[in-house]
Amino acid sequence: MHEKPPYGMIAILFIGAFVALLNNTLLNVALPTIMTEFDVSPSIVQWITTGYMLVNGILIPASAFFIQKFTNRRLFLTAMTLFSIGTLLAMLAPSFGILVLARMIQASGSAVMMPLLMNVMLTAFPVEKRGSAMGIFGLAMITAPAIGPTLSGWVIEHYDWRVLFGIVLPFALFTLVFAFIKLSNITENREVRLNIPSLILSSIGFGGILYGFSMAGEKGWDALEVYGTIIVGAIALFGFIWRQLHMDEPMLEFRIYKHPMFALSSAISIVLSMSMFSAMILTPLYVQTIRGISPFHSGLLMLPGAIVMGIMSPIMGRLFDRFGARILAIIGLSITVLTTYLFSNLDLDSGYYFIMLLYTIRMFGISMVMMPVMTNGLNQLPMRDNPHGTAMNSTIQQVSGAIGSALLLTVMNKRSESAGNDLLDQAMASGNVPQSTDGMAAFKVQLANEAMLEGINFTFFVSTWIAVVALLLGFFIKRVTPPKTEYEQVDTPAS
Q1: For residue 351, what is the DSSP state?
Q2: What is the pLDDT of residues 7-62, one digit of tens each?
Q3: Comparing C-alpha atoms, which of 352, 300, 282, 368 is closest to residue 146?
Q4: Which residue among 45, 73, 135, 158 is least enclosed by CB atoms within 10 Å?
């Protein structure tokens, strides 16, 4: 443990992780423009985000191996170089295939950024100051993806989509040069071997599950491409877990779940991620589709929530150091439950600023939960297991986010379809179906909006109960401190 945390080094890693995470959501608003330019279908253009996500899903579980095997300097410089090359290639991409390849190269660099930053912070800070440190970490993890859609919406309205990569590239290159000059090594390395069968099983397992659930909203659950990849992924994941539990040096250590607070923090993170994604997906859908508000103003609506989370994350870290995770989680999850329920009562003309306020308060509640609960779980792990803990947290957030998004979108689509049929039957029974062409067109738009609103409200109601599960789990949180001897073993910094 370092007597004085290396703040300069952490700042370098933080900027790298922030840029990589910002890149995750930066292209979402630009997909229709890219689809038109390269003349590809919606199912094809989704590979810009799906390919990025798949590479992340494959490499993040392996990040524990990379962090133990290589110095933090070498690992970060390699990751940032790959990310910069991918960004430049994407900006200049002459074809859609090259753009997808560029995104996958970006992802190969960004996948290791967050686990590496988190592991360095756990190594550099004593347990009594970890809350404050992880609060700063939360700035990158939460704020960057939330800023992405707003920035993207503004750029797309005024400039070409390639400017998005032009914005990211200077920051990536600056971070790379600064890291080359200033970055040193503080994490210990061990002589570990990469088990190829484990890597293959992990890639098929996590990759298959992520791909299957991410495509479910578009293809439908009855598509072989969806349920086939999920089944293959689940079988491979079972094989991967079984193999890790029977290895002396596993690629990803699942035995860390014997620590009850880490297991509980993972369970809360999974449930909360699924609930959190409901607002991040459904709010823009409601604002843009039902209210007809532009993508930029839709992103702007979500910006105050991102800013609040950014401001509160370090504050919540300090409060965690003082009071522990339990009280923060209970208050934060109570706010999340209440605001999610209020979201389930939207109507066709709910006020723009009312939605903005509700979304901001909801994000404030979530800011009280995410990092404190995660840090409390990591605090129970022995220092040698930190790389596995950080890799596991990043992996389950990716997987639960994809699963939550797919399930909630399915719930919304099914409810909207059912509500549409009921509304049409009621209109026909009461003789309120217009006969003129113009009247019929307006009637269909009204019917579609009312049906979608019903679907969105019902999905928020389901999400409310998901958040209730997280709240109930929050009452079982206990403050933990690792045995002091586990720190004494690693007090000497790596040379």
Answers
A1: -
A2: 777 778 788 888 887 877 777 777 778 888 888 876 677 788 778 877 887 888 88
A3: 300
A4: 158
